[in-house]
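User: Okay, second chain of the day. Same drill as before: sequence in, structure tokens out.
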Amino acid sequence: MLWTIKAASDFEYGYNAARGRSLLFRTAIDRAVEAVGRRGTDREAQARKAKRHAALLAERYPAQLERLSGLARATGLEPLEATAGELALGSLLSTGCTNFAAVPPATSDGNPYVSWNFDLSPLFRLLMGRTPLYVRDIAGKKPYVCLGLPVLFGIGVMNADGLCSCVNSVSATDGGEGLMFFELNNLAMETQSTVDGAAGVWRDNPREVLPGVALSMIMNSNSIFADMRGDAAVIEHSHNHMAVEKARDHGGVLASANHHQFLDRALSGGTDPSVEPMITGSYARLARMWELLELLRGKMDRETARIIVTDHETNYSTLAEFGITRTRYEERIDDATICMHPWNFWRHLRRLELLEAVLEANMPTLNSILMDPARCTVYFTRGNPCRNQYVPVWVGDALRMEWADRARGELDYNPELAASTWSRRLDWFRRPESTVVSDVLRYVALTFFRIAERLTPASVINRGHV
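Assistant: Same drill. Structure tokens below.
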């Protein structure tokens, strides 16, 4: 069963999410604030930014401000400290993710599907656990399944009306303050039922973008949305610009990786391999994703989705315009496969390319997540999808989906049985059975995050400004 956080109010939700886990939340906030400080933004500057963000939330998204206040009460922090922690967590180093959506006529059964290969440093497992999903159920708002850390960094993946979403981190230099992408995501998931409604949330609110081109930032994101009407779109944005691309213009399929493909990069300041070589793998992954979607259009279902997310092939066709050529028989470009492994880690070490080895080690696929709203199911893997089976999780009852009774008759598993998420090894970081011991161990492990983060030069993390 997924961790379900029920609350009668937004304040109560923040309080319930952090109650009994104050050590974990305080440690995560402290480490994130410290990491941002080492990049040139001292605590006074972070406090000023937190105050400005709190004022914006009071105007645009007061529910999130109440949640942060509830979390602060449960952890013994001041509300502005919680806000600063939220901003800092959104500014941490990010890497990959390769995602797609498929809707009719591309699907064989007429149902929508959204897939997310969640590529991120293994250190983030310490924050989210090996099962990073939970249910947010606040009175008066649409309940939905989230991925991430409650309140501070939770991304909605499926709501009660079947609206589904996934995201990719992306770099941009057209920066400015506004609602962070996961706040926009949360606002859309708890209020909207359609893709057009979700796009309106992005269009009608100021968008926070952290300027940077060396590596993608979690705070900056592309988003895919799909709904039960068979509509799907990619939303790409910077602070001042955005683009919405519909699946109907691509035969019912869409793909997204870690760069802007529809939003003019001259406007967004998005990077390409000629500016930043470390983004090269994103171009290769996206080209391979489009290749597979074209090949399987009209046949898309859960089985073909699994074929795609486990793929280890490469496609360098889109790199030729940047003067990059590579055959499939040569050493892979870093971060170039949909199912991501640190393929070149040991090669980099043998060549004493220590920075490249560290970056490569921070790019594995932690989870693969497939949203199947018509069957009220979220499938996920605990690790690389090529090595782990999908675990089906029935969410029809937790989300109170209107078609849940009908969907039960279409399942190939028993929704009344809780899906097993245990591994053979003792899982100290499990949820929802988190204990005092598990949180203490997470605290100890998170202290190593500070050491690992210090090993990455600031010049690699952000060439813009914070």
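The domain at 3-461 is CATH 3.60.60.10 (Penicillin V Acylase; Chain A).

User: Thanks, on to the next one.
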